[in-house]
Amino acid sequence: MKTTIQHIAKYEGQEVTIGAWLANKRSSGKIAFLQLRDGTGFMQAVVVKNDVDENVFKLAKTMNQESSMYITGTIVEDKRSPIGYEMQVKNIELIQEAVDYPITPKEHGTEFLMDHRHLWLRSRRQHAVMKIRNEIIRSTYEFFNARDFVKVDPPILTGASAEDTTELFHVEYFDEEAYLSQSGQLYMEAAAMALGKVFSFGPTFRAEKSKTRRHLIEFWMMEPEMAFVEHEESLQIQEQYVTHVVQSVLENCQTELKQLDRDISKLEKVKTPFPRITYGEAIKFLKEKGFTDIEWGDDFGAPHETAIAENYNQPVFITNWPKEIKAFYMQPHPDNPELVLCADLIAPEGYGEIIGGSERIHDYDLMKQRYEEHGLSGPAYEWYLELRKYGSVPHSGFGLGLERTVAWISGVEHVRETIPFPRLLNRLYP
Ligand code: 4AD
Ligand code: MG
Fold first, then answer.
1. 92 and 193 belong to one structural domain
2. 164 pLDDT more than 80
3. According to the UniProt entry, what is the EC number of this protein (predicted)?
4. For ligand 1, what atom is nearest to the CA of residue 225?
5. Of the candidates 300, 358, 352, which has an alpha carbon nearest to the alpha carbon of residue 328?
6. Same domain (yes/no): 147, 192
7. What's the pLDDT score for residue 376?
């Protein structure tokens, strides 16, 4: 019977075959312990000299790390194993002997590992992070599908910028100039007017010259957009969504969280409602804390976000930002037109902003005025303005940065480990 490590519990007492790689091994005299990995998980296989053909035992003792094989044996319970089972080996059919695998069980430097990212992905730690990433994606679809959102795919090649125009990647589009999308939002607003509640999930690109543990050049964003939803309701959906994702990882990624030594008591505290402070309160708090480098009207840097987040053991919303430091499309605050109806969601433990969202301007004249203030013109923006012309309605949306969310939930320090092949300021390889 051919199976995988993930399903091994079903085969206790039975003989199975697994396609696997050798992650590690140790042996002494008459016994060899093989640490197998098969993509679905990790498991120990025990080869006892007297139970197998001579050549099989010889192979088990000499096989190199990352050699590939079909391995056959009986599944038995093993209380010490993290997965509860191990294999008593009957036979090994070598597929390829690996020679000089560069990533040995010893410690390697970050640059070396990043240069070998195509192989580093095979490690237990990277495997765990990728599985958590997958669970976040799966539970995102689950959350939005259960609430009647329609998945819509905005284009990647675009003519208009949604966020900071200095961070655009320019590409030739025949005779025109195009950009790689830095957010699907503008298109998602059009989609929300057609389908009501929509969400996208796709890659976005920012030519940011930031070299921090939170910045990637190419990252993936979840962008829900909702017609007839005002700011307050959007905040509630955001906190429910983030809570759902955290709960799903806690339920379905126990092995992975353990592999990463994640302190899950911190994740268990994530419950709705999330605390909120206004931008104004945040500035006041930072000044009281002794930050002298921040004034009303400034955007926050990582140290500011971290100082604010340290006050809470939950993600925290910072609301009501000055309009000057936010995007052109944000709805003014009804009590103070200098502020906009928006929020950034800051993750605990110093992981920074994981969501940026707002209510959008739906008034045609006001949007037109904002265009003029921001110097936006030309056909690339005309269609967006037109959305405010034909049955415009209040609507809100937000964008969750997948990699920062993976970093926070997994507890890994740097976003470079949260995406299979990170694109960084100084890295396009592999
Ligand atoms: O706050 P941002 O720029 O918001 C938008 O793009 C909106 N148009 C989204 C929307 O309302 N539909 O980006 C959203 C999130 C941030 O909170 C952050 O988590 C992530 O995207 N993000 C990055 N993640 C990794 N590397 C970068 N360079 C990032 N820039 C933003
Ligand atoms: Mg933002």
1. no
2. no
3. 6.1.1.22
4. 12
5. 358
6. yes
7. 87
Q: Using one digit for the tens of pLDDT, what is the confidence trace for 102-134?
A: 999 889 999 999 999 999 999 999 999 999 999
User: Is residue 108 included in any domain, yes or no?
Assistant: no
Q: What is the pLDDT of residue 188?
A: 98
pTM: predicted TM-score of the whole model, two decimal places: 0.97
Is 102 within a domain? Answer: no
Q: Whose CA is nearest to atom 24 of ligand 1?
A: 401
Ligand 2 centroid–CA 356 distance in Å is 4
Number of folded domains in the chain? 2
Specify if 422 maps to a domain.
Answer: no
Tell me, what's the ipTM?
A: 0.99
Same domain, 87 and 132: no
Cβ–Cβ < 8 Å for 404, 416: no
- Tell me the pLDDT tens digit for each residue of 174-187: 999 999 999 999 99
pLDDT at 232: 98
Distance, CA 20 to ligand 1 centroid (Å)?
Answer: 38
Confidence grade of residue 160 (pLDDT, cut at 50, 70, 90): confident
pLDDT digits (tens, 9 = 90+) for 135-150: 999 999 999 999 999 9
Specify whether 137 is located in the same domain as 275.
Answer: yes
232 and 135 share one domain: yes
Q: For the stretch 243-273, what's the b/e string if a residue is b when 16 or more beta carbons lie within 10 angstroms of its beta carbon?
A: bbbbebbbebbebbbebbebebebbeebeee
Joined tokens for residue 222: 């979840």
Rounded to the nearest whole angstrom, what is the distance from the C-alpha of residue 355 to the centroid of ligand 2?
7
Pocket test for ligand 1, best of 183, 358, 412 (most atoms within 8 A of CB): 183
Q: Which residue has the tokens 């089972």?
A: 85
User: Which letter does DSSP use for residue 331 in this model?
Assistant: P
Rounded to the nearest angstrom, the distance between the alpha carbon of 353 and the centre of ligand 1 is 8
CA-nearest of 346, 399, 342 to 214 is 346
The pair of three-digit structure tokens given for residue 234, joined into one six-digit string: 């959007």
Query: Contact 165/381 with Cβ under 8 angstroms?
Result: no
Query: What range defines the domain where residue 39 resides?
Result: 5-96
- pLDDT by residue (tens digit) across 244-257? 999 999 999 999 99
Pocket of ligand 1 (CB under 6 A): 162-163, 183, 185, 206, 208, 215-216, 219, 221, 223, 353-357, 397-399, 401, 403-404, 415
